[in-house]
Design a protein that fits this description.
This protein is mainly α. The protein contains 17 helices and three strands. Helix 1 crosses helix 17, helix 5 crosses helix 17 and helix 16 crosses helix 17.
Length: 365
């Protein structure tokens, strides 16, 4: 990759090389609106392979939530000794669905977060809409008002708060993703990964900003240094790695449950190295496909809204009476059926939110 020389004069931002010449002429505003990188160039058409990956990830997150919060709560506590085969089977294969959050941030690193007022407002309006739905019966309390209108600092959802912090610091990460050479970039990835394995304070921080930054850097590295030709040629190797790492996680977890604990094995942390490798392998497999589908792109627009409705609004108590009320096969079918039905319902509800907020976003544009 050729070296580029960004220059900033009176609100003009130039990115020059022999292949292209781009000029962004705007009023003087925060520098973050001017970042322009190869994989961060705005496009009017979303890549449907990435959008399909978003849909798969949110379905995986829904499966996880309905599993551990309602239908199989014993899996969350790893209390499955003496239970039926279905609990052991689900836990053994759980890594295949426990990759949604990691893949979401890898996608962000792949395309690059481009901070803008419109992007901020869109995320803010989604949070407010679903926080209002969640607080309809206790809206006028001071605590509720703070949580509704300050979701990025006082909200209850850890993912929203961490992602917003990543949204803010992305302008500091993007130049590193764009200009670090492959050798030093790879060294940085390995160094941070080794630190997260060694230090307890990082090892237990899979639900935190440092982990999101690490995944963001990995996503940017893959975009810069893994070519489309290489991904296409190794597509099924990536899928094989996804299966191998997922089974390895299951074997280690079941061994831990039965008293053969692996030192420092943190089952449910997103920065568990086997979980991360599983997510990276599946991410590369999905990104190796190239196709366009307006239906998939349209459905993927509601991904964050589906998450908000599931986490902020849904009370899992309505499913608790059905936990273990049926035989194993019926229970698994209910689990999958509830997940798919909820996704369809959530996308439908989000069309109302889009109808309400779209005029506001158009005025901003």
């Amino acid at each position: 990759m050729q070296k580029r020389s960004p220059n900033i004069r009176f609100g003009l931002f130039f990115v020059q090389n022999k292949e292209n010449f781009c000029i962004y002429a705007k009023k003087v505003v925060p520098l973050c609106t001017f970042y322009a990188c190869d994989h961060m160039t705005p496009t009017n058409e979303r890549q449907s392979n990435a959008e399909l990956l978003r849909i798969i990830c949110i379905l995986a997150i829904l499966l996880h939530h309905f599993c551990v919060h309602a239908l199989y709560p014993e899996i969350d506590s790893l209390d499955i000794i003496g239970t039926g085969w279905d609990k052991h089977f689900i836990l053994f294969n759980y890594a295949f669905i426990y990759l949604g959050v990691n893949c979401f941030i890898l996608i962000s690193g792949w395309f690059g977060i481009k901070p803008s007022w419109r992007g901020f407002l869109n995320m803010y309006l989604i949070c407010i809409f679903y926080n209002l739905l969640a607080s309809y019966n206790n809206f006028f309390s001071q605590e509720t008002l703070v949580q509704v209108f300050l979701p990025f600092t006082h909200g209850k959802l850890w993912f929203i708060k961490c992602y917003f912090k990543l949204f803010l610091i992305a302008p500091l990460l993007n130049p590193a993703i764009q200009y670090l050479n492959k050798r030093y970039y790879a060294f940085l990835i390995v160094l941070i990964g080794a630190a997260s394995l060694y230090y307890d304070t990082l090892w237990v921080s899979g639900y935190s900003l440092p982990h999101f930054v690490y995944l963001y850097l990995i996503g940017g590295f893959l975009r810069r240094f893994v070519s489309e030709e290489r991904m296409s040629a190794h597509r099924w190797y990536y899928f094989g790695a996804y299966v191998a790492f997922g089974l390895a996680w299951g074997a280690c977890t079941v061994a831990t449950v039965h008293g053969h604990a692996i030192p420092y094995w943190q089952v449910w942390n997103y920065n568990n190295p086997v979980l991360m490798l599983t997510a990276v392998a599946f991410f590369l497999f999905m990104m190796s496909w190239k196709f366009q589908s307006q239906i998939i792109n349209r459905l993927a627009m509601s991904t964050l809204a589906v998450y908000m409705l599931n986490e902020a609004v849904v009370k899992y108590d309505f499913l608790t009476p059905y936990a273990h009320a049926f035989n194993a096969w019926a229970q698994i079918a209910i689990w999958i059926g509830v997940t798919v039905a909820f996704y369809i319902l959530a996308v439908g509800i989000d069309q109302i939110r889009i109808f309400i907020t779209q005029p506001i976003l158009k005025r901003i544009k």
